[in-house]
UniProtKB/TrEMBL annotation:
Domain (Tyrosine-protein phosphatase): residue spans on this chain: 140-310
Highest taxon listed in the record's lineage: Eukaryota
Name of this chain's protein: Phosphatidylglycerophosphatase and protein-tyrosine phosphatase 1
Keyword Lipid metabolism: yes
Pathway field: Phospholipid metabolism; phosphatidylglycerol biosynthesis; phosphatidylglycerol from CDP-diacylglycerol: step 2/2; Lipid metabolism
A GO-annotated cellular component: cytoplasm
Keyword check for DNA repair: no
Catalyses which reaction(s): 1,2-di-(9Z-octadecenoyl)-sn-glycero-3-phospho-(1'-sn-glycerol-3'-phosphate) + H2O = 1,2-di-(9Z-octadecenoyl)-sn-glycero-3-phospho-(1'-sn-glycerol) + phosphate; a 1,2-diacyl-sn-glycero-3-phospho-(1'-sn-glycero-3'-phosphate) + H2O = a 1,2-diacyl-sn-glycero-3-phospho-(1'-sn-glycerol) + phosphate; 1,2-dioctanoyl-sn-glycero-3-phospho-(1D-myo-inositol-5-phosphate) + H2O = 1,2-dioctanoyl-sn-glycero-3-phospho-(1D-myo-inositol) + phosphate; 1,2-dibutyryl-sn-glycero-3-phospho-(1D-myo-inositol-5-phosphate) + H2O = 1,2-dibutyryl-sn-glycero-3-phospho-(1D-myo-inositol) + phosphate
UniProt GO molecular function: phosphatidylglycerophosphatase activity; phosphatidylinositol-4,5-bisphosphate 5-phosphatase activity; phosphoprotein phosphatase activity
GO BP terms in the entry: phospholipid biosynthetic process
EC number, as in UniProt: 3.1.3.27
Compartments, as annotated in UniProt: Membrane
Amino acid sequence: MALSRALPLILRSNGRFQAFPKILGSSTFSVNTTKPFSQLLCQANRNLIASSKNKINLVATRGMSGDHSKMWTIEKIVSLSLLGVVPATFLVPNTILDNVFAVLVVAHFHWGLEACAIDYIRPIIFGPVIPKLAIVLLYLISASTLGGLLYYNNNCIGIGCTGALPFPGVSKELMEKEHVKAVISMNENYELLLANDGKSWKQAGVEFLQLATTDIFATPCQSKLVEGVQFINKFVNTTNIINGISTTSVYVHCKAGRTRSATLVGCYLMHRYNWTPEQAVNHMKEKRPHILMHSKQWEALEVFYKHNMRIINT
């Protein structure tokens, strides 16, 4: 009786038990075909990086242009130009070539430094202000450098101008336009390697006297100053002065025409016009504003004025 009652329950349960392996099998199949979590995470990261890669700018935006192609093209032209301008400036010295040389050199350094500033002083690192200030400062430095070079070139401190080293290209001009009959060099021998030396001047029919004096740290000794003034007096004296103007001149030079040669010329002016050192220096500054007289040069002028002016015969 109990068995007959339990039999339908067993049969119904048996049907459910028969369906269970199918359900379990389908569930097992689904789990087995799912990738491990670590692989899913790696795949998700790769997809994220790939989708965002094109949106990231790996190079900071240039402040001046997308690249330096135009600037480097101009820079190459400037560099090639310098290959011709540099020797020409020494062989045929004149103010125009001096100015061209100054412009090319300043442009060459400016563009190189500007590229470095743009490449390495980036807004992403230094912020928006410092890179702009760096560019402005660079332009100020370049402008002041070029202005200074042009000023010196046009005030006779160029490579071949009066008072500075006379290179071969200016010898004829000095003799024809300035009526130079004699030259006094305050340079040491090594400074005359590329300039006219005594042999070159004598071949051109110009008298030459070298009173070698160390640059910057020394001033001509009194014996050299006396010898130099006496040498000038041989060519600039009352016999060749017409209407107050000398028909001959003596070219006195050092390297830049600012200190050594100015000391000797100051002594000559004191002797000729019976001037004080202050009067002589003031006159030279009117004619040549960039002369540079340090304490040693002033001392040399004072000693010459007190002790040596009277011993020189005009």
